[in-house]
Request: fold
Amino acid sequence: MLVDPHPAHFVRDPPHKGEGKAAPRLTLSGISKSFPGVRALHDVSLSLYPGQVTALIGENGAGKSTLVKIMTGIYQPDAGTISIDGQAVTLPSAHAAFGHGITAIHQETVLFDDLTVAENILLGHAPRSRFGTIDWRTMRKNAREVLNTMGAGHIDADARLKDLGIANKHLVAVARAMSIDAQIVIMDEPTAALSLKEIEELFLLVEFLKSEGKAILFISHKFDEIYRIADRYTVFRDGEMVGEGLIRDAGQSQIVRMMVGRAVDHIFPQRKAEIGAPVLAVSGLSHPTEFDDIGFELHRGEILGFYGLVGAGRSEVMQAISGITRTSSGTITLEGKAIVPKSAADSIDAGIVYVPEERGKQGVVIGLPIFQNISLPSLKRTSKSGVLRLAEEFALARSYTERLDLRASSLSQDVGTLSGGNQQKIVIAKWLATTPKVIILDEPTKGIDIGSKAAVHGFMAELVAQGLSVIMVSSELPEILGMSDRVVVMREGRIASVYDNKRLDAETLVKTAAGIAA
Amino acid sequence: MTDTPAPRYIPDRLDKPLNAAIFSWEALLVAVAVAIFAVNSFASPYFLDVWSLSDLTFNFTEKALIALAMALLIISGEIDLSVAAIIALASTMMGMAMQAGAGTPVLVAIGILVGLGCGAFNGLLVTRLGLPSIVVTIGTMSLFRGIAFIVLGDQAYKGYPSSFAFFGQGYVWWVVSFELTLFLVAAVIYWFLLHRTSFGRRVFAIGNNPVAAQFSGVRVGRIKFILFCLTGLMAGIASVLITSRLGSTRPSIAQGYELEVITMVVLGGVSILGGAGSIVGVVLAAFIMGLVTFGLGLLNVPGIVMSIFIGLLLIIVIALPIVWRRVRRERLT
Amino acid sequence: MKVFPRYREVWLLAAIVVLIGLISMRFPGFAAFGNLRQLFNDTSILMILALGQMVVILTRSIDLSMASNLCFTGMVVAMLNAAHPAIPIPLLIVIALLVGLVLGAINGFLVWRLNIPSIVVTLGTLTIYRGATFVISGGAWVNADQMSPDFIGLQRAAFLGIPVLSWIAILVIALFFLLMTRTALGRSIYAIGVNPTASVYAGIDVGRTKFIVFCISGMAAGLCGYLWISRYVIASVEVANGYELNIIAACVIGGISIAGGIGSVGGAVLGALFLGIISNALPVINISPFWQMAISGSAIILAVVLNARGERRQGRIILKKAEAA
Reply:
């Protein structure tokens, strides 16, 4: 158990009276911020109240991360005021924000893997001895105290952070916030990399922070989480604030309307693809530490979903099939022919492409323009004996970006200037342009806005209708259930079960993935 | 972030405003070169003589040849600090062969092959063992030059055949030296390779994001290996030219060249962090460095003081656009 | 696997002991206390320089200008001493530290304020500082007979049987040890190397910290400027030419990762000692000193290979072991 769910001072259901009247701890008003050529925020306001969770909601590119960077002192606003407990403040640096008790908990980036837990908690405000040097003993003691108050006494203050699981890393991040006596805690998509169980544990932590009277800003794309944990909401669209209020007064569709400026019923596309003969057959695929005895078949026109908890080995299997990592044994057969891909280049040549999960790190090449990103895996086709043919590259890029409804000012624009959703379209386009037989999509809609999501799903349906075969790795149940023909569930590096997606329910999948007997 | 609520049709490229061309890195370098040229011709009456100008080119062609390959290597995110040591080792090997009675063609072949071999050795260590190139090549720098010292000690090889002198001292036509001709031909080849072939495109992709490049089917290791080989090869060619020009080999030959080559590349607008750069910039930077050294030489400024100018030039040319951008942004707000 | 990186210094120490053991098999006098004391004294300057370079490398930067800084500062103090022999040596040392600090601060300022990569900045100042030495000296040398006896004599003096130069090195090592393990600055330096983005969010001023590390490396180089000149009793433009790469080599052999965040005071000291032993031992065991360069080159390559083995992260382990039966 990570956190005792019912410590004595824990108020499960804070009384709502006086909500509107309680003084906000932090108020941002009239904040504007522009970058060369882009208006990121225009005259936005936001208030955070002690003991309450405010959800910040908006599509990608709505200006949420810019606001977080302003609140943590990384960016300076062009206009507007920030006040804490009614006092106007400026936050010229991250250090200043820190001094005002503002702290941010990010997905993974805020902590230091090679430092110890105690160092991570107390870095920047370590106790000093008489001589001004770091007092290690007091430091460990303080760290332990903080962890104990949170009911996380099981974490060793001397352990290196890299030896902890992701959930415990979150605990350390929260402990850090506690130790600086942060009054304002920003949680920027904290659940993105977490499994269901870890998310539950995180929510207990949020409840704990609320009970301590912290003002919390919670940023998430997931409505179930927002309704679970938030007290208030603020909605951004295109850099402007378009609505705020109490979450219990607002319906989900109302908030979605505010986000997108129109009502969107996300319905998964109807598909009429004929499922044909097997195209890809994998059997006995094994790796010394990552997965074991993986076997499945993929048919023409099929979408095969791969479901499992984060870290179940799904991406690792897909990277092995596409030649990026090596296997210790097993066979891969494509259209009846055994293939042994030794690199991504081999598998692309054979007709299997892998669209990776980490868009920024593995997908797009930031620094290169759109058309060069798209042609990169297809350079053999768009060049003649090694000499580039720009016209062909532009033609290739145009045909795919049009199909995916890309929004950009020109094909020579640097991909780094596009929003997450549009970058994802580039990522899909570049691998699709190699005209593969099998396309493996790893978390294709992770962290992108609803509009782009629908475009990606619609496109997948189009692909299989044209006779392609798709493997879709996803941790989002609605997506798995809405898109797959069959679902493979993986657990701890092995295939736990394969289901036909007829009358399949979410509960069965979750239980199989977690290893709970149905 | 910049989703322009889109027209369905996306143009290939937007018309570049004229000032984008005016404020490009290459334009800045041209301006600097013209300025130095003008100052030189005012300062010394001997400067504007064709033979002076021809002599000028000997100052930089050998280093510039290496800089061409080094530019590609740095764009791909790697670096080679051992190039000067490769020159020393290749020159020493040529000297050994010369003493054993080898003729000019064999000497040239040895120089080039030793360079290629050293480059391949660096490439193997970096790509096969996954080691950081800056450290590996500090090591091989000591190793290669160290071997030259073991062979030669405080001795020198002298007495290269007279036909060997052509490469470093000969002229192809009138005042156009063989070295300059070779450099210009090589510059065209490298320009084509970097900017007009799929190989060059992959080099840029690797420099900007090696992981995404690998996922996109770029054979990252193989391309980096080739780039180390090319750099070694160019160092081998440079070794032939220098040995031929000096007519002798000492183990301390070309000492400190590696930093001048890298200065040339960075001055040419290649990002030291990888991913960006152009051959035109590197060629311009080579001429600028030659002009500075030669012009100051005519004014009897000692070499060591010239290096101050090169160092200042490097920092100022890099800092200028940064300061300029900052000032302009402040004026806008 | 986990133990290895933490105790890399122990392995290096073991290698040094074995090396000394092997040499003394052929030449028994080598391991004698007197000779080892001499060895330490000979390596003192390199140790101090390596420590200065270490703090820079830990923050994912590099200082190529240290040897030029040393050369310039050495010339300044030598010329001061030649012109005004009355200036007391402690004051000269303070001047050396200050001059070094200023040159380091110039590097740091360019890295911090203009955000130019440190390798570019220090490549530029490498040539500028050495050129400046020529400008202030007019190309002339300062010879032993122009220096005051105190200037030359200080570090030849011994205290408790150990030369003053060695005492200075010991003091510097102790200061660096305190800095890296007992101060918030030391923690920040490691944190920046491990994860620069996270450091910003943790409230560390990354730019300012980088500025400070260049000031530290500058001061180390400045101090060595005096030490070098008074030891080798000649100040010229050629002093320590190319030495910047020896300094980096000592760090690399000492296990300091060029990618930042990994390395220790002990490692830097041992790395310098290792190079010192090689250069000292060769004449003793009758190998031409011309072998020294190739041997240190091989040692660097070997050290990188071994360090990379230790640093290499293991892949994720997903499969549960022994799910037998």
Observations:
- The longest strand of chain C covers residues 158-159.
- Residues 1-5, 321-325 of chain C have pLDDT under 50 and may be disordered.
- Chain C is about 70% helix and 0% strand.
- Strands of chain C lie at 158-159, 162-163.
